[in-house]
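Quick one: structure tokens for this chain, please?
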Amino acid sequence: MHLIAPMADEPPSDYVAFVARHASGLRTEAHRLAGGAPVHEEIYLAVLTDLAGHWRRLRLLHRTDTYMRQRLTARTAHWREDQVYEVEVRVLPPPPPPARPRAGSLALRKATIIPGTARASLDALADAEIAWIHAHLRAQRHRVLRHALFVLLVVGALIQYMAWLSADPL
């Protein structure tokens, strides 16, 4: 019996749908805020993990978008505080188009132009699963720590109570 039900092992479908809707925008914003650093993927997954940990409460309060933006700002600020150097941004011109078309089949040449629809949803599903598992493991660790702290407090209270009972009433 739980006062607050523990997290499910699998992410709920509305969380997966939320991640699928916001994955590209969140990833782009993390990349922009990190200045193009390769750590933007870690920031992106950390934000999704934070969101997964509080998903039920945020969904009920309709604050998922706000919380996601707050966590993205906080995670990026935390990353920037850890930097020991200034980030220098240089804008490079786009590469010139090739003089002659690349060799290969027509399907390979079209594949670079046509955006994939199935792959994008699979990427979002994978990101949602990873973030949910990280949040689930974090929730389990916090639960174990809460139980250990409770046991320590009960043992300490029993020791204090027994000392109080055995004290001389003078």
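Helices lie at 13-33, 40-53, 55-61, 64-82, 106-111, 118-166.
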